[in-house]
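Luciferase-like domain-containing protein
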Amino acid sequence: MTTNSTQSAKKILLNAFDMNSVGHINHGLWTHPRDESHRFNELSYWTDLAQTLETGLFDGLFIADITGVYDVYQNNIDLTLKESIQLPSHDPSTMVSAMAAVTQHLGFGITVNLSYESPYQFARRFASLDHLTHGRIGWNIVTGYLDSAERLIGHKGLKDHDLRYEQAEEFLELCYKFWEGSWENDAIQKDKTNRIFSDPKKVHQIQHQGKFYQSQGVFQVAPSIQRTPVLYQAGASPRGLAFATQHAEAMFIGADHPAKIKLQVEKIRKLAQEQGRDPHAIKLFVGISVVTAETDQLAQEKLAEYSRYASPEAGLAHFSSSIGLDLAQFGDDEAIPYKQTNSIASVNNKFKDQKITRNDLKAQHLLGGRYPLFIGSGASVAEQLIDFLDETGIDGFNLTRTVTPESHQDFIRLVIPELQQRGRYKTAYDSGSLRHKLFQQGNLLPAQHPVQQFRC
Ligand SMILES: Cc1cc2nc3c(=O)[nH]c(=O)nc-3n(C[C@H](O)[C@H](O)[C@H](O)COP(=O)(O)O)c2cc1C
């Protein structure tokens, strides 16, 4: 039920959730005759998508990424290759400038695994992108969970889960120094008469001697509009949550029952407050899939039609790598035992708490992905999303694609106007950077954020 009370007046934030690959979340749908995801290596595929999303006033395009391949299921990559389960996949930042050139407002959340980056090169690339996009860049901070990545990079094996976060803390600290501690705001003068492009007194060397990284010198990029890109994170383990609630401005909460998500939301807001931050300084997103059509009946028919092309088994192969356990080794009705692994702790923990079989997982992967599925007419989906948001206390959704590009076009044509009519979605973009659009408090991170201690 939808009401117009003040409490329910929160506007829904919306990101499209995608990846520079064929299969992302909803596996197998690449075989649908109208699906165009095989065109992911063409620039026009992405510029068209960016323009489409901007007509739907999406806040951002969130681009997932992995280093490595999914080789846990059946202990090989055969199904991964056949179904194109995030393989091939290309670098997520390469198409962003082109998408920014054909849009004005859409934000870009780019996933980069810091374990395989040098902080300096990474900070330079993202600061450059923030310049070119006029402050529309976000970074999804991930530390990796695939052994296959370690082999590709030439490392000895995945670092322990909590040690990865310790390294992430230091990586971020060094990035803060580069982005916020080297150049003063008015260092660039562009004074042709006195031949002063940058004022030497206002550009400072940074010093860093840490456990994982050392750096000394001047950052090569002058301040961009946001300086630090908007920080996204998805930590859910105790160590991951401590990291995210200290640094992140947006967090993804894994798909689960609304009651569990509500508890997670309360936990995150409390932890943020304990770290001296405004509990609402973190926008919380849940990943979803939507199938919508002109009527509820037509939406059900569309779902049935889509599901004929989906591959629940490919979904299980993806899942196997997320938890670091080969799900092919169990019978369809056998309870999957919990086994501690070094992968995504929060996803794996489900097997501790519940009896889950392969058949349960396959039913959940009706469209090839494990995200909650909302089905119905535009009005029905809008009401379901509003109820979900109000019940859980989250701020918005990461919308996966199903048959692309038609699923986003359907959502924009049918669901967005219904959300707008209920006063729950913007009718125009605000001006300003991605951070300003999200928080209405300017382009820079607020003074309560840990970045403050690294500012010059
Ligand atoms: C919605 C969502 C999206 C994620 N996207 C990525 C991704 O694109 N690349 C990646 O390496 N990890 C991704 N992760 C994994 C997280 O970065 C993180 O490793 C995971 O949530 C486990 O956190 P934990 O170790 O604190 O439990 C994602 C997690 C969630 C919940």
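thats it. The CA atoms of residues 112 and 428 lie 30 Å apart. The two ends are 50 Å apart (CA to CA). bye
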